[in-house]
Amino acid sequence: MNTAITQLFNIQYPIVQGGMVWISGWRLASAVSNAGGLGLIGAGSMYPEVLREHIQKCKKATNKPFGVNVPMLYPDIEKIMDILIDEEVKIVFTSAGNPKIWTSFLKQKGVTVVHVVSSVKFAMKAEDAGVDAVVCEGFEAGGHNGREETTTFALIPMVKQQTNIPVIAAGGIATGKGMLAAMVLGADGVQIGSRFAASFESSAHQNFKQSILDVKDGDTQLTLKELAPVRLIKNAFYNQLQSLYEQNASVEELRTYLGRARAKKGMFEGDLENGELEIGQIAGIIDQIASVKDIFEAILADFLEAKALVSRF
């Protein structure tokens, strides 16, 4: 496949793996890159030296392009950026912050920069900041996303209409049919998270991987908009959170309840009751844990089958 995204990253297929916290380590990133996509290491759950270790291991595991996803709210952001330059990372996805702060610094170092956005307004700001592409993430997505609750398939054409840089669609995409639909609407590629979370190579705990398979329609909810919007599987932690909302809890009370390491507890340590379980709505169609290689083959076969089907109309 030849799109603006395959050209930008020098990859075979316009498929980017989401840089998910506690899930996207070097094993997952290198497997996706080796399969022909763009693997991303999720820096959001890593101490600086842990990130360095993952980058070094990823380099040994693949000779294909890979990148790092960096939430800009990270407390040691300066150390993270120094490590990225130190380790000669060539592709960086930024999120959860103002792209103007780091884009010019990274681009001066020869880094390709992509920013994650949830609205047309932020896509335009990212383009003005000089990013090379944007990820348009609809509110179907797992993990942290926008407060606007704009769906992926509404967001893509609106952003394409207002910007002139490549667009990567994210949120609610786990199949070749979804990939084709996004590209028909104007996306130059797709970013897939939830499907790769349920892979053998992901860093997620087996309990969490199984919980992804158990998710049905309506089992996830976007919440915590007052802090940072996040889509969660409804479990005991989530139910208690909703009780706090019913009691008109303050932002500080919500922050106190959330505490620290809830995502680690749920997704990495496998505590399905007390942990924060982040996953996208599309988990409802994921029914097996598979290797990255098999996931890629299934997505690409589905894409070609769907493309052949629509060409008949």
- CATH homologous superfamily classification of the largest domain: Aldolase class I
Radius of gyration: 18 Å
Give the overall pLDDT as a whole number. Answer: 95
Structure summary, number of beta strands = 11
Contiguous runs where pLDDT drops below 50 for at least 5 residues: none
The CATH first-level class of the largest domain comes to: Alpha Beta
How many helices does DSSP assign? 14
The number of domains? 2
Q: Would you tell me the structural class of the helices and strands?
A: alpha/beta
**Could you give a short account of the major beta sheet?**
8 strands, parallel
Description:
It is a single chain. By secondary structure, the chain is of the alpha/beta class. It folds into two domains: 4-204 and 285-310, Aldolase class I (TIM Barrel), CATH 3.20.20.70; 206-282, no CATH class. The protein is 42% helix and 15% strand. The chain contains 14 helices and eleven strands. The strands form two sheets. The chain has an eight-stranded parallel sheet with strand order 1-9-8-6-5-4-3-2. A hairpin with a 6-residue loop joins strand 10 (220-223) and strand 11. Helix 3 packs parallel to helix 4. The radius of gyration is 18 Å and the shape is globular.
Concise synopsis of the structure shown:
The chain is 42% helix and 15% strand. The protein has 313 residues and is α/β, with parallel strands linked by helices. The chain folds into two domains: 4-204 and 285-310, Aldolase class I (TIM Barrel, Alpha-Beta Barrel); 206-282, no CATH class.
